[in-house]
Amino acid sequence: MAERYAISQVEVPEGAAVPELVKLKMETEAKLAEAKKQALAEKQKTRDEERAKLKERTAAYEKEYADTAAELVKLRREAKLNGNFFVEPEAKLLFVVRIAGIIKMSPKPRKVLQLLRLKQLHNGVFLKVNKPILNMLKLVQPYVTYGFPSLKTVRELIYKRGFGKVSKQRIPLSSNDIISDSLGKHGIHGVEDIIHEIYTVGPNFKQVSNFLWPFKLSSPKGGFINKRHGFCEARGGDWGNREELINDLLRRMN
Question: Please, one GO biological process term (predicted)?
């Protein structure tokens, strides 16, 4: 069998008699090799085009972030000059971290945490700010802490601890092909697209958030203050709404 297989791999001398089956096999293998070569070339060409488009989109995103920040600074300065108060725009994005285990937890909060995909201690997810989500957070407030993440925090979390859900498996985001295969139909082909969609709470936020596996964070450096008490209490604590101060906690947990 090894000798017969070797015949199809070597060049047959001119004028030599070649069995018909061997000739057919050689022709088939040549066609398959050519088809494979063409498919690889097309795939490489498509990948290069997508990469170039992603670079352009990334530059556009950076400009958008910078313009938004500059506009806010300008409005704050105008308000200060005119002796007015500047009302900050309402946050659209939440990051929720589970800080309590399952012991002595009643069934209702346990079910809500399951719906929020916070099944383990120190799991974290991005959520859109709306009435149903805020009502759900009220039910589980003693078991979670949450706030409004900055662009830097979103980027660090996704780049360092971002994993995708592919066929119900936890896959690291090591290649843009993984993202394209799952979210390409929504126009998302790279990590920067994911960051932009999450941070701006775009039209495909739900699909992107469901694609991202819940973040598995470490215990915070320096520890918690007191998990039995709320963050806003006079004596200090951990659970509840931290608003922008969630960024400090996430940097210690990332």
Answer: maturation of LSU-rRNA from tricistronic rRNA transcript (SSU-rRNA, 5.8S rRNA, LSU-rRNA)
Which one is predicted more confidently, 19 or 199?
Answer: 199
Element (H, E) at 172: strand 169-172
DSSP-assigned beta bridge partners for residue 212: 164
Does residue 96 contact residue 124 with C-beta atoms inside 8 Å?
A: yes
Positive or negative, the CA dihedral 194, 124, 134, 225 is negative
Burial of 94 (0-12, 13-18, 19+ CB in 10 A): buried
**pTM of the entire predicted model:** 0.79
The H or E element that residue 156 is part of is helix 151-161
212 neighbors 194 (Cβ within 8 angstroms): yes
Q: What is the pLDDT of residue 13?
A: 66
| CA 193 from centroid of its chain's CA atoms | 9
Which residue type, as a one-letter code, is found at position 215?
F
123: DSSP letter: E
